[in-house]
């Protein structure tokens, strides 16, 4: 395997854009974008800091109920 097979610029850019789109939606509690980015299925699992949620309905209920304040976080050493 060569670096060209792993670090394809177009793929890296696509993944990076999706990552930062998710991060922005997460810290702004943009439920519409978060719903779009999560698989709409009962088998979807979200591992949280203090909770594990099973199924898209539990995930949506959690997002809707949580405060939209204080969601910012510092990302350190993010590598794609």
Element layout with pairings:
Elements: H1 3-6, H2 9-28, H3 31-37, E1 45-47, E2 52-54, H4 56-65
Antiparallel strand pairs: 1-2
Helix pairs in contact: 2-3
Describe the structure.
By secondary structure, the protein is mainly alpha-helical. The protein contains 4 helices and 2 strands; from the N terminus they run αααββα. Helices cover 51% and strands 8% of the residues. Helix 2 packs across helix 3 (31-37). The longest helix is centred in the N-terminal third of the chain and has 20 residues, at 9-28. The chain is globular, with a radius of gyration of 15 Å.
DSSP helix fraction? 40-55%
Number of domains: 1
Which fold name fills CATH's third level, the topology?
Answer: Nuclear Transport Factor 2, Chain: A
**Average pLDDT:** 92
Strand order of the largest sheet: 1-2
For the biggest sheet, the summary is: 2 strands, antiparallel
The shape is globular
Instruction: Output the helix-strand order.
Output: HHHEEH
**How many β-strand runs?**
2
Q: Identify the CATH class.
A: Alpha Beta
Strand content: 5-15%
Instruction: Write the CATH architecture name.
Output: Roll
Structural class: mainly alpha
Radius of gyration: 15 Å
User: Could you give the distance between the termini?
Assistant: 18 Å
Number of helices: 4
Low-pLDDT parts are: none
What keyword list fits this structure?
80 residues, mainly alpha, Nuclear Transport Factor 2, Chain: A, two-stranded antiparallel sheet
């Amino acid at each position: 395997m060569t670096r060209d097979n792993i670090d394809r610029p177009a793929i890296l850019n696509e993944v990076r854009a999706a990552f930062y789109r998710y991060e922005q939606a997460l810290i702004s509690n943009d439920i519409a974008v978060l719903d779009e980015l999560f698989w709409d299925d009962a088998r979807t699992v979200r591992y949280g800091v203090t909770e594990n949620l099973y199924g898209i309905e539990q995930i949506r209920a959690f997002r809707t109920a949580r405060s939209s304040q204080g969601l910012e976080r510092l990302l350190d050493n993010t590598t794609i």
